[in-house]
TrEMBL record:
Belongs to the N(4)/N(6)-methyltransferase family. Its EC number is 2.1.1.72. One of its GO terms (biological process) is mismatch repair. GO terms for molecular function: S-adenosyl-L-methionine binding; sequence-specific DNA binding; site-specific DNA-methyltransferase (adenine-specific) activity. InterPro entries: Ade_MeTrfase_dom_2, DNA_methylase_N6_adenine_CS, M_m6A_EcoRV, MeTrfase_D12, SAM-dependent_MTases_sf. This is Site-specific DNA-methyltransferase (adenine-specific). The keyword Cell membrane does not apply. It holds the Pfam family MethyltransfD12. PROSITE patterns: N6_MTASE. Signal peptide: none annotated. Keywords: Methyltransferase, S-adenosyl-L-methionine, Transferase. It comes from the Bacteria.
Length: 288
């Protein structure tokens, strides 16, 4: 029998993402935060996804958000009662028939905790852990035939502890950042601008994130800088993105994308863009 961790151990346990997410930053989180401000007020992450960066830094005050309502509901359910989510989850059989049945159910026709369990189950049993929906918003990834447990109860407990008191919203990034103030910090990890392979995959909701949204995001970043808000953004290493942020600091970050079916295309270089100088973290200042 596996020994149970004490409550204090669970409180101190470093949470990990409980889902797989295309473009997730679990492997890069430690590298990225080396370029983050050492001091800030409220932490904002409006493209939450799997939450890798948030789980790594665990700020004292945060507002997390994503436009994917089902994803956000899953975080909210774990925040409210992770045990119920876990109990619902482990009762679901890992078979193709059960997978197809769960996939066919409208997630908003069931209660919050069942909805969260369905989200995690589909993520853990679908092909390569993708989250993709059709134009009507229906999850449409095929069964993956993976024999693995859906969740680690200790990690779900640690996740729940880490998001207690955190405001988690299902809103567009522009609305999520409307109340930022001078001295706050925003980490942005939007669906990357297309340049082939995994970056073309941007249907996380029934609304695709397209070129116009990248222009809108750049405008929001400009407004954040005007207000004295620190921000850092991960995005694709493309001429388009470089041109949008030509006045900001741009750092090339080596990365690997496991979801890409082409193993030769998994090693890439992406960009970390900031509105502050990062050469000396002890003297961070906003760009003019």
């Amino acid at each position: 029998m596996r020994p149970q961790k004490s409550n204090q151990t669970l409180i101190n346990m470093h949470p990990k993402p409980f889902i797989k997410w295309a473009g997730g930053k679990q492997a890069l989180a430690q590298k990225l935060i080396d370029y983050f401000p050492e001091k800030f007020n409220v932490y904002y992450e409006p493209f939450l996804g799997g939450g890798s960066v948030f789980f790594y830094i665990r700020p004292k005050s945060a507002l997390l958000s994503d436009y994917n309502e089902w994803l956000v509901n899953t975080f909210q359910a774990i925040q409210k009662n992770w045990v119920t989510v876990y109990q619902n989850l482990v009762e679901i059989e890992n078979t193709k028939e059960t997978f197809l049945h769960v996939r066919s159910i409208d997630p908003f026709s069931v209660d919050l905790f069942t909805r969260a369990a369905y989200f995690i189950y589909l993520n853990k049993t679908c092909f390569r852990g993708l989250f993709r929906v059709n134009k009507k918003g229906g999850f449409n990834v095929p069964y993956g035939s993976y024999q693995r447990r859906y969740a680690d109860p200790d990690n779900l407990h640690a996740v729940a502890n880490s998001i207690q008191g955190v405001d988690i919203q299902a809103v567009d990034f522009e609305m999520a950042l409307g109340n930022t103030k001078k001295g706050d910090f925003v980490y942005l990890d939007p669906p990357y601008y297309k340049f082939g392979g995994y970056s073309d995959f941007n249907r996380y909701t029934d609304q695709q994130f397209n070129e116009g949204d990248h222009y809108r995001l750049a405008s929001v970043c400009y407004e954040l800088s005007r207000k004295g808000v620190y921000w850092a953004q991960s995005n694709s290493n493309t001429p388009f993105i470089r041109s949008l942020y030509a006045e900001d600091s741009i750092i090339e970050i080596p990365a690997r994308r496991e979801i890409n079916l082409n193993s030769g295309a998994r090693n890439i270089t992406e960009l970390l863009i900031t509105n502050y100088e990062v050469a000396n973290k002890m003297q961070i200042s906003l760009s003019e």
